[in-house]
Amino acid sequence: MECTIKWVDGMTFLAETGTGHVVAMDGAPEAGGRNLAPRPMEMMLAGAGGCTAFDVVLILQRGRHDVRNCEVKLMAERAETDPKVFTRITFHFTVTGKGLKRETVERAVHLSAEKYCSASIMLAKTAEMVHEVTIVDVE
């Protein structure tokens, strides 16, 4: 896996992934940025959310569960002094499907958190991880 970061101007940077995708990042105005794109730490949080959502959906689909939607809201707290690492991250999953059992969804979340999601497992080295689940049943 590779990524190249290119400085555009001010505090705006473009990240080009090894698969050819481009993502912009920018700093806060007080840091010389223009607030044109997400901050790098927001990108890390989004990466952890995407990684775990991918896992949960895949685990449920492989178990032949009727999952229709998965949304993960992440709320992070950071240290007050440098390095301002994440100290606590709450993952709130809202999983929609037909006839989903709470224990099945919670098992998928647990497997992602403990075994499969490299991003959140890496962040767990500095942050307390909290996982919450809401299940929405549809016909």
UniProtKB/TrEMBL annotation:
<dbReference type="Pfam" id="PF02566">
    <property type="entry name" value="OsmC"/>
</dbReference>
<dbReference type="InterPro" id="IPR003718">
    <property type="entry name" value="OsmC/Ohr_fam"/>
</dbReference>
<dbReference type="InterPro" id="IPR036102">
    <property type="entry name" value="OsmC/Ohrsf"/>
</dbReference>
<protein>
    <submittedName>
        <fullName>Putative redox protein</fullName>
    </submittedName>
</protein>
<dbReference type="InterPro" id="IPR015946">
    <property type="entry name" value="KH_dom-like_a/b"/>
</dbReference>
